[in-house]
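Figure S7 source data.
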Amino acid sequence: MTALHQPAATPDLLYSETEEDLRSAVRSLLADRADAPTVLARAESDTPYDPRLWQALAAGIGAAGLLVPEKLGGQGASHREAAVVLEEIGRSVAPTPYLTSAVVATATLLALGTEDGPAAELLTGLASGRRVAALAVPFATPPAGATGATVAAADGVLDGTVTAVADAATADVLLVPTPQGLYAVEAAADTVTVDPLVPLDLTRPLATVILSGATGTPLATGEAAADAVRRGLLAGAGLLASEQLGLAEWCLTETVRYTRERHQFNRPVGSFQSLKHRMAQLWLEVVSARAAARNAADALATGSPDVPLAVAVAQAYCSKVAVRAAEECVQLHGGIGMTWEHPAHLYLKRAKADSIAYGTAGSHRAAVAELAELPAP
Amino acid sequence: MTASIDAAEVRRRTGELLAAHPPATTDRTDFLKARFDAGLAWVHYPAGLGGLDAPRSLQPVIDAELAAAGAPDNDPRRIGIGLGMAAPTVLGFGTDEQKQRFLRPLWVGEEVWCQLFSEPGAGSDLAALGTRAVRDGEDWVVDGQKVWTSSAHVARWAILIARTDPDLPKHRGISYFICDMTDPGVEVRPLRQITGEAEFNEVFLTGVRIPDSRRLGPVGEGWKVARTTLMNERVSIGGARIPREGGMIGPVSRTWRERPELRTHDLHQRLLTLWVEAEVARLTGERLRQQLVAGHPGPEGSGMKLAFARLNQEISGLEVELLGDGGLLYGDWTMRRPELVDFTGRDAGYRYLRSKGNSIEGGTSEVLLNIVAERVLGLPVEPRNDKDVAWKDLSR
Ligand SMILES: Cc1cc2nc3c(=O)[nH]c(=O)nc-3n(C[C@H](O)[C@H](O)[C@H](O)COP(=O)(O)OP(=O)(O)OC[C@H]3O[C@@H](n4cnc5c(N)ncnc54)[C@H](O)[C@@H]3O)c2cc1C
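Tokens for the predicted flavin-adenine dinucleotide complex:
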């Protein structure tokens, strides 16, 4: 392994006081507005996202603008803080377009590096939470995988279809990659159809986006456009690890609580060693996931050259942990874990969908193979 | 804590030490003694005992300055049991005389320590031990057998637990002693192990006389003292940073890069999974270290040994397979009595076999999982029937 692959600086893997304050604010908001029955009721309604919750999170707490510089109306904070917000969103499986709008779309626009013009204007809208954007690529796209090949652009007029776009249905603006460049398209235009799909994860809507002669505002072309999309997806994949961490933590905590209380054979089921070992093992994976997720968030925040590897490692590790935590949660709850009323299924569905989002663990391992110079046969 | 001691102050004192005893011209042991006397050995220890009563987080500052100046270290791997287990126990339970007598030569490395805890009939259930210590005037007379004692063949001193009252329940009739390994009646026999060498030993204790002044803690309170030792044993994960690919994943990754003819798709997937897990374990250790430095030690410490044991075993197992024909060979089966475990300087077969001990030594992985479940997660303990029965009435 060459020196190139050693991280340049030691990452800061702890939480700062500011981050802990932000966490408490987000956690108490979500406890009020996104408890499990509310989330379930929302998921079954026509409007899966509660606009009041989004306003309180985005504008009230200022979470939407964490990545955006102050001069564009944001908080001038970093991926480290956004990661903490996502941990709390994972912990509550709250339905919000935070990951897609405040992280992926925002990071894509920020990567364009313009101080004025349409991208800057869009960023100001996103930072305030007044507007919501979605990057129009399939949710399963890994960081290096967006081609935009299914949409054609000619003189700023866009035609084509993009499948399984996360949060397209709630977005005001779609950022559409095409082989000709990156465009912003108003989602409400007559020339844009957003067809909702039935998602595995009830708390994150997916839709097919059909563009039929839609007018796009050009944001970038060529390598600049491809690079911006890649960086948006890297931020998404990197911070998704924090959502997975929060989700896994909730599953473990709830499982420990439940198995301490539930009695069978005249003792708490949590006193049986086979269960204790499974939960202890899961705990070890959760604390390891925390180190991996923090490392990715810190690399993104500091713009370290280690970003691609830190993100690939975090995704290759954390998505498995979240799925296992949710699966163990269902199993160790027994029959009640299989019911619609108990929230465990919301977590399992989110965890499984997250394990495909922005690249599977396998695709991230392939990225590790390249970055760490461990080539396939 | 002395409020006036901060990073600048320990830097100043380290500078003074280096000026008075230039590493280039000072004898190694003399330098280490001077370092101990300057309070820069373990800075959180009391003044006069190698420390300055300062926050533990200042130790890395001192270590970095000394390393940069090319100062000798005290070979912490060779004296790991002394540093990690004997020292905190002597500090916590020893008399002033005991602290004065033992801590300096221990830290300097002049005296190696070993741990006479496990017995043929008492491993995980350590409190069931049967080695007897009977009071005779100012002495205790000890008879029994210990086993799997690492470094007993090079140790000058041992921490020893023995039963002083068989009529009490097992946890309450134990006392804790410091045993002189050169005393008559102490016999150390090499115990050859899975790798072919003898890194640990059987120790037979026959009428060994230990003066009462070498008892640690009150009579009958030995289990409480031992718990301090065991806690430190499990937490003594190094404060040292490891670089990426610093552990066992390093050699196998290098082999993968250098010998393309060995690569298969199956091995590739397993290697990548383990590479990711090794990197995550490294980061988890780094996070633990940062928590310690910030003064908020996390419970992660109890889990790291579990993680490294499993990883070492899986990685070395993969490495043997990757080597194919080479994996069928073994470096050397000669019976030797090494002073320390050397993972990096040896071949894959040795690593594979020796790492099997990682999930047994210092508490098995099963027992550590119990501890995590009960102490970290707060899960209920299993019902037990051995707590209130006199030790002599337990079934064995
Ligand atoms: C390389 C090496 C070096 C060592 N060095 C020292 C030393 O220097 N000094 C010293 O005193 N000792 C030393 N030991 C001994 C070590 O601490 C013990 O081997 C260990 O504590 C396990 O005890 P045991 O061997 O008696 O196994 P046992 O306790 O008999 O265990 C047998 C199996 O049962 C499992 N088991 C036991 N109890 C439980 C339980 N409650 N729940 C679930 N599973 C359980 C164990 O995990 C294991 O798989 C060393 C061991 C090794 C391998």
